[in-house]
Amino acid sequence: AGSAYPAERAALRETLARYLDGGEATAPPGLVGIAAPHVSPEGGWRSYQAAYGRLGDEQRGRTFVILGTSHYGEPERFGVTRKPFLTPLGEAEVDGALVDELCAGGGDAVRVEDYCHAVEHSIEFQVVFLQHVLGPDVRILPLLCGPFARATRGGGRPEDEPGVARVL
User: pLDDT by residue (tens digit) across 39-48?
Assistant: First the structure.
C-alpha cells in the first residue's frame, strides 16, 4: 500500500472502481476459479478487470485459494501463513483449518513462510481486489509457490515432483 496502489481507503476504492468499470457483469455459472496477474494493479488493470469484474454476491462466503509467485521461498515448495492480510480495505481472514490440513497432508512440500508472505506482493494484490468486490472480510488460503525448476528443467511439469503432486 502506498506504492503499487493507494494507501488511503477512499482513494483505493476509487482507483479499483475505475479499473473494474466496464468489466463483465456476472460470472459464468459454476465458476470455480479465475486467473489474474501479479503485476501492479495500474499496469495490469485490464487483466484484473477481466478476472475480478465478474465476481459477485454468489461468491461471498467462499474461501479463495490464492496461488502467488514467491520470489523468496524454497524451490519445489508452497509457502503458507496463518496471519491475516491487512490492507487499507480491511483484514482478510486466513482459513486456518485449511492451512492446518495442507500442512498435515503436504509433507515437505508445504512450509509456513510468514517472512515470505510479509515481503511478497503477489497475494496482496489479489486480496485487495477480492476485498473491493466482495467486502473486507474475505476468507483466503494464501499459497506462495516457489520455483519448480527441478521438475520443469527436462520438460517435466511441477506435479512430477511427488510433494507438489500431493499438495495439488
Answer: 888 888 888 8
